[in-house]
Design brief:
This protein is 71% helix and 0% strand. The chain is mostly helical and 577 residues long.
Length: 577
């Protein structure tokens, strides 16, 4: 890359080693893939090609602008002062889907919609095409590799035999959809995301939409299983929220004062979104979703107590933030970090007790909160009803250099980072995995930021992060994870099918926490997104294992030693390939 020194190259490579190492450990220990070692025999080859392609391109490429040209975008559309993050666009979602299958894919609940098995296949297809298109290969060669990967996944995947054409169309559709989705996110929300973040978001949205479409085609009326219902409510609410945003986008825009037209448009949008969401769920299940949600939240004493606790906590937080908004804005960097990290602390107080008490209520609460956040941000961006200016003025008090785009992403990433592990765990009882986002962001990231800013003096090479902050991150995360494991009986839940493995003790927790601390120090992506999902995958892989394959350890050690290879030898290898 142009202008990239050795320290920067090493930082990017060892950042990539963390998710790559997890994939290698998982593939060697659990099989290819973890849920059925008799199918998808070509998947490991595809993933290894992703690893090799990324490394060669990242280490040897002489131009980073090709990535934007291939996606039909421009450099100015991406978040500034950050590396593109191509590796995360090609590995984050497959890594999470791989972890999701561990220990759960054989359950009957996964027969609804795509299931974890189908989601894993489609995530690999999307990551494969994304990475190949950015590999620097010629157009004809990259297209041939994309088609070969799609056909291999469609033919060797764990599908019902006899529907090859449908499977090819599904895999191809997912690959095309993620490409178009990445373009849409980058173009419509300029300077808000890096390439890797936009690709990961597009892939996640594509998987949710395809799973919802699969449920519409395979209706399970009368099946009102809580886990299935939670996923369906989340996906349908996402579509309904998108409809609300579309209606708001068509509204007449007013920058000042309260407008009757804006109010009417907002009411129409809310009604259309709620009605569409309810209709989808009722069509799939043949049940009244509103009645189910009310009973799930208010039908138990625990749910009612959690709601009261949330209302009291939010009332206190609102009063404090209102008082802060009236005080003069301080230019101190420490005060800005304290204000920002106060939201992280609030997230811990809101989410951790709620999950321990009733995961189902927290799952529904996260879904509602995300819909509210999206609608509120749409109102702010569109300046509807005179609220846009006031909301922008308030939120800019808590933003930093990463929130210079059209959309303020800080609060979204915090919510999504805490919510996605809970949505994926989906009341299965793996508390460390489900609370990965809450612990990593609410506890560890807060300690790292404040300690590093106040006491940090030794900086990591090619980054602004400090060694003292990383140490605080690791220490606080170890303590938080052990406290949660002690509270929930070390993650063991007989009803959910988890076995208490002796290998996942303090040593396992320490390894995960150290890896996340190093990742937080090295990554230039938004850590509120990559750290929770990577930690979720790491915990899921360790919670079911008391041993690790020695072959995988050797492979990971070899990956860490690759930078010792002379640069001239790598250039010759690249020219041969």
């Amino acid at each position: 890359m142009v202008g990239m020194d050795t320290a920067q190259r090493l930082r990017l490579y060892y950042e990539a080693c963390i998710p790559m190492g997890l994939l290698v450990l998982g593939m060697f220990h659990y099989g290819f893939p973890p849920f059925d070692d008799t199918t998808l025999t070509l998947v490991p080859g595809l993933l290894m090609c992703i690893i090799i392609t990324y490394y060669l391109y990242n280490r040897l490429s002489s131009n980073t602008d090709d990535t934007h040209v291939l996606l039909g975008t421009q450099t100015s559309m991406y978040r500034r002062r950050a590396d593109p993050g191509r590796m995360w666009g090609g590995m984050l979602v497959p890594l999470v889907m791989f972890a999701l299958n561990i220990g759960d894919a054989s359950d009957e609940k996964h027969s609804v919609g795509l299931g974890a098995c189908g989601a894993w296949v489609l995530s690999v297809a999307m990551a494969w095409t994304f990475t190949v298109r950015l590999s620097g290969l010629s157009s004809g060669c990259s297209w041939a590799l994309c088609v070969a990967g799609i056909l291999a996944l469609a033919l060797a995947g764990p599908w019902e035999r006899g529907n090859t054409g449908v499977h090819v169309c599904l895999v191809a559709m997912s690959a095309i959809a993620q490409h178009m989705g990445t373009q849409f996110v980058v173009r419509k929300l300029p300077r808000s995301f890096t390439l890797g973040e936009a690709a990961a978001i597009a892939q996640g949205i594509c998987l949710a939409l395809l799973d919802l479409a699969a449920q519409l085609f395979t209706r399970k009326q009368g099946l009102v299983d809580p886990q299935h219902m939670c996923v369906l409510v989340l996906e349908a609410a996402g579509v309904g929220t998108a409809l609300i945003v579309c209606v708001l986008y068509m509204a007449p825009q007013h920058s000042q004062g309260v407008s009757v037209k804006d109010t009417v448009w907002m009411c129409v949008a809310a009604g259309a979104g709620a009605g569409f969401t309810t209709s989808i769920i009722a069509f799939v299940l043949g049940a009244n979703p509103m009645r189910w949600i009310v009973l799930a939240v208010l039908g138990s004493q625990t749910g009612r107590i959690v709601l009261i606790y949330w209302f009291m906590l939010m009332a206190c937080a609102t009063a404090i933030y209102a008082w802060c908004a009236q005080t003069p804005t301080s230019s101190s960097k420490l005060m800005l970090h304290i204000k920002r990290k106060s939201y992280h602390i609030l997230a811990v107080l809101l989410f951790a007790p709620a999950y321990i008490a009733t995961p189902l209520v927290l799952h529904i609460g996260f879904t509602i909160a995300l819909c509210v956040f999206v609608c509120a941000e749409s109102v702010r961006v569109l300046c509807l009803n005179g609220w846009g200016t006031q909301m922008t003025h308030f939120m800019r008090r808590f933003t930093d250099a990463r929130d210079v785009g059209l959309v303020v992403t800080a609060h979204f990433y915090l919510l999504v980072g805490c919510a996605v592990p809970v949505w994926l765990d989906n009341t299965r009882g793996c508390v460390e995995a489900a609370l990965a986002g809450v612990l990593a962001l609410g506890v560890a990231d807060t300690c790292a930021s404040l300690v590093g800013l106040r006491f940090g003096s030794i900086k990591w090479p090619a980054t602004v992060k400090t060694v003292e902050g990383t140490g605080a991150f690791i220490a606080s995360l170890v303590v938080a994870v052990e406290c949660v494991r002690w509270e929930k009986g070390f993650g063991y839940d007989t009803a959910s099918g988890y076995d208490e493995m002796p290998g996942y003790g303090l040593v396992g927790s320490f390894v995960v926490c150290v890896a996340m601390g190093v990742l937080e120090a090295l990554t230039d992506q938004n850590d509120n997104l990559v750290i929770p999902l990577t930690m979720y995958a790491a915990v899921k892989m360790l919670i079911h294992s008391d041993t690790i394959s020695w072959v995988s350890v050797v492979v990971v050690a070899a990956m860490l030693a690759v930078p010792l290879i002379p640069h001239s030898a790598l250039i010759q290898l690249h020219s041969v390939l």
